[in-house]
């Protein structure tokens, strides 16, 4: 008997999902109904909680995620996704949403490098990455304050040379236990 893997479990459920047309209740378009794009953390606690806490349903907003909702490069994939949402997918507002108790607040780059080595990444590979110009300590760095991190991401987006100035860029922090949202930056105060 073949062992049931996570992938086979997903595919088995998906077959039932499509055969029974359960997807019909999620039908929408590629354009966000509330004309919003959210940049948030990939934390598992936020998958449904964030949407419920913001009264969002499928199709209401574009959602872009990474570890910590940290915008690290002005011309990386996160910023490109936000620009696509604004210029091509009719998003008129951006919400950067961090959360309390984020794993990125406790990230220790040296520990992560040690974890990489324990799982088979060689020092030679690490040296190659370092010699290519990547500062692993900085690249793997987390943050001390979620509010400061959200503010940093909001400022990078707002001040991006390709971001239109009349799009409000809001900053919020969510409690991953209760869903309470705390306002860090009201983007309406900064639009021109």
From TrEMBL:
Reaction(s) catalysed by this chain's protein: hydrogencarbonate + H(+) = CO2 + H2O
Binding residues annotated for Zn(2+), in chain numbering: 41, 43, 99, 102
Cofactor(s) named in the record: Zn(2+)
Gene3D superfamilies: Carbonic anhydrase (3.40.1050.10)
Annotated cofactor note: Binds 1 zinc ion per subunit.
EC number: 4.2.1.1
Alphabetical UniProt keywords: Metal-binding, Zinc
GO MF, one annotated term: zinc ion binding
EC class of the enzyme, as a word: lyase
Protein family according to the UniProt entry: Belongs to the beta-class carbonic anhydrase family.
UniProt-recorded name of the protein: carbonic anhydrase
Originating organism: Lederbergia galactosidilytica
């Amino acid at each position: 008997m073949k062992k049931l893997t996570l992938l086979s479990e997903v595919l088995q459920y998906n077959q039932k999902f499509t055969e029974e047309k359960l997807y019909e209740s999620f039908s929408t378009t590629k354009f966000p109904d509330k004309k919003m794009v959210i940049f948030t953390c990939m934390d598992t606690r936020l998958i449904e909680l964030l949407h419920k806490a913001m009264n969002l349903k499928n199709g209401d907003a574009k959602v872009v995620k990474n570890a910590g909702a940290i915008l690290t490069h002005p011309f990386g994939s996160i910023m490109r996704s936000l620009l696509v949402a604004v210029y091509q997918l009719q998003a008129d507002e951006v919400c950067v949403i961090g959360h309390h108790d984020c794993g990125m607040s406790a990230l220790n780059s040296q520990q992560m490098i040690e974890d990489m080595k324990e799982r088979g990444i060689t020092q030679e590979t690490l040296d190659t990455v370092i010699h290519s110009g990547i500062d692993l300590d900085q690249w793997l760095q987390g943050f001390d304050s979620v509010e400061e991190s959200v503010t940093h991401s909001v400022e990078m987006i707002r001040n991006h040379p390709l971001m239109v100035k009349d799009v409000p860029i809001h900053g919020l922090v969510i409690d991953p236990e209760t869903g309470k949202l705390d306002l860090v930056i009201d983007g309406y105060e900064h639009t021109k």
